[in-house]
Amino acid sequence: MRIGNVELGGYAALAPMAGVADRAFRELCMEFGAGYCVSEMVSSKGIAYNSKKSAELMELSDKERPSAVQLFGTEPDTMAQAAEFAMRYRPDVIDINMGCPAPKISGGGSGAALMRDPELCGRIVKAVSSAVDIPVTVKIRSGFDFEHINAVEVAKIVEKNGAQAVTVHGRTRQQFYAPPVNYDIIREVKRSLTIPVIGNGDICSAKSAQHMYDYTGCDYIMVGRGALGNPWVFREIDEYFRTGKMISPPTLDEKLDVLSRHISRAVEYKGEYVGMREARKHTAYYLKGFKNAAKLRNLAFSMETLDDLQKLINEIRTSNC
Ligand SMILES: Cc1cc2nc3c(=O)[nH]c(=O)nc-3n(C[C@H](O)[C@H](O)[C@H](O)COP(=O)(O)O)c2cc1C
């Protein structure tokens, strides 16, 4: 799989996820076999206003390559300038968010709201593609709502204007994350384009990965929520597609070791105050399916330091053995 001249390894990418798919998590998923990852979305206006937060979101390390910086916004010129600025962080790809359903993004006309104006989608892609000399890609949904399923139209316009791959999340903006995923629209987009198409929506195992590839004919897949607290999903997918074999699920010890490594790295990158607050939700994801998960989650939500995490891990080792 290639996006322009960028070669992706493996079989699946980690999806952009604001607030969770940060550098520490992306690096971990790449270690477990993700072949590509995309940054949390970054506001093009934030970049124009020199926001520190926007700059932090674009930091990429060599352990997470190839990777994209994802931008959102509505104005072609501002998006182009933001993409030029993002080049300081040496992304391999610039991805444009045309799928975010959150009111604070799509309410302002960005994210999924762009799909209501395909012509503007084309102008944004053209402006960004002209501003940078790396591939530009677009992430869309099936449409804005069930009355406007226009992924094929938008995908064709962005291809015509220079996009080098399109990711399709098979849900409308109206659906947010509710079922079902529309695999037919992903297949239709794949059949309508010459550039690669990445299928996205509800992939959480080798089996669901296989279904996405087989049903839609897509060139690559992207995993979001299925990786939360579960970076092993990439190892499972990778092993299955390479050898046809299913790996055994991680042991309790392996889960706890990876949790500890994940959070320690987040603290290294963000400091203990921010790192540990963000660690609470990640820890809750890792705890899914554990004995006494509700009680452990309560403990997780009061963690302040890495020592607190260690105490929690010790408690889990005692109570889950
Ligand atoms: C917490 C969260 C944050 C997300 N943030 C972004 C984002 O910044 N940019 C984006 O394009 N999509 C974002 N998404 C959507 C995902 O990239 C993905 O399209 C969606 O979760 C469907 O894939 P899944 O079923 O594998 O989770 C986010 C999703 C979640 C759950």
- Give the name of the CATH superfamily of the largest domain: Aldolase class I
CATH topology (level 3) name of the largest domain: TIM Barrel
General shape? globular
Strand content: 15-25%
State the helicity in percent bands: 40-55%
User: How many strands in all?
Assistant: 10
Cα Rg: 19 Å
Structural class: alpha/beta
Output the helix-strand order.
EEEHEHHEHEHHEHEHEHEHHHHH
First-last Cα distance: 43 Å
The biggest beta sheet reads:
8 strands, parallel, barrel
Low-confidence stretches: none
What is the name of the CATH class of the largest domain? Alpha Beta
CATH architecture of the largest domain: Alpha-Beta Barrel
Question: What is the mean pLDDT?
Answer: 96
| Tally of domains | 2
Cofactors, ions, other ligands: flavin mononucleotide
Number of helices: 14
State the strand order across the main sheet.
Answer: 3-4-5-6-7-8-9-10
Please state the oligomeric state of the protein chains shown. Answer: single chain
What do these coordinates show?
The chain is α/β, with parallel strands linked by helices. The protein folds into two domains: 2-243, Alpha-Beta Barrel (TIM Barrel); 252-319, Non-ribosomal Peptide Synthetase Peptidyl Carrier Protein, Chain A, CATH 1.10.1200. It is 46% helix and 16% strand. It contains 14 helices and ten strands. The strands form two sheets. Strands 3-4-5-6-7-8-9-10 form an eight-stranded parallel barrel, surrounded by seven helices. It has a two-stranded antiparallel ribbon with strand order 1-2. Helix 8 (183-192) links the parallel strand 8 (166-172) and strand 9. The longest helix has 19 residues, at 252-270. The mean pLDDT is 96. Bound molecules: flavin mononucleotide. Flavin mononucleotide (FMN) binds at residues 15-20, 40-41, 70, 97, 99-100, 139, 169, 200-203, 223-226. Residues 15-20, 40-41, 70, 97, 99-100, 139, 169, 200-203, 223-226 line the site of flavin mononucleotide.
